[in-house]
Each structure stands twice: as C-alpha cells, then as structure tokens.
C-alpha cells in the first residue's frame, strides 16, 4: 500500500504539512463536505446513519481518516487495519470506484473553503493527487474484497434477496430475524463477528445498515440482531424502526455478502475473553457458538452487561452455551436490577463490569474481544491496558463510525 508513484518526496512533505490544519479544522471541513455532497446528491444521504450524522460522529470519523491518511501518505501500510475496517464497511454499502471522484471533488471544495489562503494552487494540486493515491489504495482493496465475496462458494456481489423466515423478540427493543436466501442456494461461510448490510426501500429511497450475524456459520439461514435505534419521530433509526414495525414473516430483504474485520481467531489456543454491553452481545454470541463447535477445549470467559432483565438478550441461549461447555464461564451484570430480577436470579452481579472483575477474570495471555457503546469500550480498554495487556491483544467493534472513537493509549 505504498502507492506514491505520482507524488515526489517534496510533494509528500508539502501534503503532510497540511496535517496540523486538517486535524484542527477537520470536523469543520467534513461538515461542509457532507452538507454540500448531500445537497447535490441527496440519494447518498441514505447510505449513512442519520443519527450519526446529527450527532457529528460521521463527520468526526471522516476528519480522522483524512488527516491520518495524509500523515501516513508515504507508508499507508501503517494504517492498514483502519483501512481494512473502512473498506469492509464500504463494500457492505456497495461503494464503487466511480464514487471516489465525487467524494474527492466535494472534499477538495470543503478544504479550499475552510483553509482559505493557506490552500494555494500548488497545495490544492498536491492535495488532489494525494487524495487519488489514498483513493486508489481503497479501491484496490475493496475490489479484492468484492472479488473474494463473489467467488467464494455461495457468495455473491451487490445485494441478494432474503426471505424473513422468523422474527423473535429478544429483550426490550431487540429483535432477532432469521433470513434465508430467496433462491434457496447454500450460504457462504463467514467468520464469527462479521456482519451483513440490510438494504431496505423506505420513503422511495434505499437505506442501508449493518447488523452482526449472531450464530456460527454453516446453517441454511442468517440470523441478525436488530436494536431499535433512536427515539420516536424524526430521530428514530430508519432501518431499525422499519424492521421492528413493518418487516414480517415472508417479507423480502436485500443483504450484502458477510464482511468485517472484527473476527475471532479460532486457530489460537490462548484463553479468550468476550466482553459486551447491550446490543454488543450479537457478534460475541457468534464467537461463543463457534468456540463450542471448533474449539471446545479453549478456555473462554464472557462478561455481559445490560440494564436489567428486560434488556437481557439471548438469555436462554447464553445459559445453554455455558452449561454445554465446562471451558466457558459467564458473568451477567445488571446495572439496575429490578425486584423481580433479584427473585428470578438470572444475573450474577449488580452494577457494571469493573476493574476488580477484569483483574480477576482476564489473564495476561488472553485474547480479548469487546463490543458495546463508546463509554463502555473506553473504560474497558483503558482498564485492561493499565492492567498490563498489550494493544494487540485487544480486538473491538464499535457500532457506528469507529474512527470517531478515541482509542486509549497504553
């Protein structure tokens, strides 16, 4: 990924001199970029999560991606993990090479508007070439992801029609959808922790959202967990509201091929720790099923935090998985247990996952997989790094724009 053939050493130095300004004004640049892009291409708005747009998370994530890419222009391999994460997201949304010139044009206009006189003709010329180098790196990686997805047994490109076979309530505000391919073909294998993108036509536009696969691969169906996002009215999640309120047995939805880089390495013998909060249980559940099938001898610890019994998703399945494998242990945390929760006894500890429990349960040779809200992730990662784990032992998935999440430093 060192595609700097169109840039001289001096060009790269000039481009990298923009990094402080891009970092300082990045969110302003990307806010203007999205506003003008969506004004002229309103159909593109529906690719993105509206709540993330309103909260500024998408703008912040793009700003981070821009200045990190420019800062590593001569060594893009340094940010390869981040590039892979974004590329998989792009492929699930159907991003194509022809989209990159459009993005480049509007991003350049935003840079020019915000930086003003600092964006001289020479700098803008180098900026455009630097953007093309970065775009080419993404395009090449994404075309390879598309190729692998289409050529694998049972794979496809673009979106494929699936029939809703079952719809089940799994705790307050969460449903599970069982989806089978309309053509009856065999499904492709996927890695535990990966997701599919659902494309639904709502209000004349297609809206796209990613949802984790919640079982081990090898079945005739995909199962996804869908949390109802946002509040009522205009701030409600478009796709999640549609799936909760309107999707029913027999309906047809379009899905992308499975993708994502937050995956369990089931070749390692080291202990595995799965830490989730709320909807974050969904990819971890796929990992638990896969451990049972492929590595029943591997020690695994699950820590799962929810508000109370009403929000305890997949409770029976988790209990069954733990009972079936003596190498797996689970601690269920209820932050605000109700009186009936105390009586039923389906949780182990009141409160949140804390440093004392992590110290007790997470050995220094563990591989740790985390998924949940930003605050949960921030606290867990900071604590584990302080307790002596290395960054390479910590694997995590953020629901939402990952680059808007500040990763703690060791």
UniProtKB/TrEMBL annotation:
It is an enzyme of class 1 (oxidoreductase). Its EC number is 1.14.12.17. It comes from the Bacteria. The keyword Hydrolase does not apply. Its cofactor is heme b. Keywords: Heme, Iron, Metal-binding, NAD, NADP, Oxygen transport, Transport. It catalyses: 2 nitric oxide + NADH + 2 O2 = 2 nitrate + NAD(+) + H(+); 2 nitric oxide + NADPH + 2 O2 = 2 nitrate + NADP(+) + H(+). Residues 6-143 form the Globin domain. The keyword NAD applies. Residues 157-265 form the FAD-binding FR-type domain. SUPFAM superfamilies: Ferredoxin reductase-like, C-terminal NADP-linked domain, Globin-like, Riboflavin synthase domain-like. Gene3D superfamilies: Globins, Nucleotide-binding domain of ferredoxin-NADP reductase (FNR) module, Translation factors. It holds the Pfam family NAD_binding_1. In the C-terminal section; belongs to the flavoprotein pyridine nucleotide cytochrome reductase family. Belongs to the globin family. This is nitric oxide dioxygenase. It comes from Ktedonobacter robiniae. The lineage of its organism: Bacteria, Bacillati, Chloroflexota, Ktedonobacteria, Ktedonobacterales. The gene is hmp.
